[in-house]
Write a structure and sequence with these properties.
The protein is mostly helical. The chain has a domain at about 50-165. The chain is about 70% helix and about 0% strand.
Amino acid sequence: MEDPLEGELDRLFQLPPGELVEARNALADRLRREGDKPGAARVKAVKRAAPVAWALNQVHFGQPALLERAREQANELRGLQAQRGGDPRHLAAALEQQRSAAQAVVEAALRAGRSAGLSETALSQRKLFTTVQAWLSGKGEEPPGRLTQELEASGFDAFAGMTPTDAPPPALPIANRAPSGDAPRAEPQPQPAKRAPNRDALERAAGRVAECEQTASAARDRAGAARAEQAAARQARDDAQALVREAERRAAELRTAYDRRELELQRVSAALDEAQREQTRAGEAAAAAHAELATAQSEGEA
């Protein structure tokens, strides 16, 4: 049964590079709230991929057949290299096919990176090709789709992956020409010996690059976490401001309602006072009428 967390991780690695850290932290928080602490720790350990690694991951998700073909060609090439006495033409053809398959992966990665807005500087074609060749030769421990770092090829793999634009073409001997007049016949020129690369220096340089990339990745993660915290704090501030504005609006409504009730009370109180005065005047008039009636009655009896 497939682990559902694998699908969540795949979705993280398919996000644009700038969105990974915030989405990763949100997923880790959700898993922690749900009680899945191991899953939360696993998600929290996910690193933001370098641009080259991110672009190659997208080839895995979008065009896996390209990576599979490159893997098959690399395996075929290694098999021919292991044979002794094989036809050099077969080896040359296999080498060209392997280069072509790797270049197809690189071009797909370039398209994915450009679609995501990654710069041409970050998406160096040479770095992409080198990382593809290194991965095909078994370097790196990260599986396809989960790459976070660029890789460095070494030994034969470093040079087998070179495209024609990576190095100047070798010097060609001067062809023998048929004599023309008294012109001397050109002699073949000796080929200069090719200097083998210093493997130890390459490995040391690759180690320094890896350390720098790890430091940069950690710094990117810290910056991403800080940005996420900043965004959360900004959101909390905005929410508080919204609550304050709502409270102020409600207070203004209540003040207006209070003022209306106060005016109504004053009007009713004034009406009550006037009614009481009318009641007093009516009482006085009634008393006067009673007195007048009593006087009239007394005079009539007399």
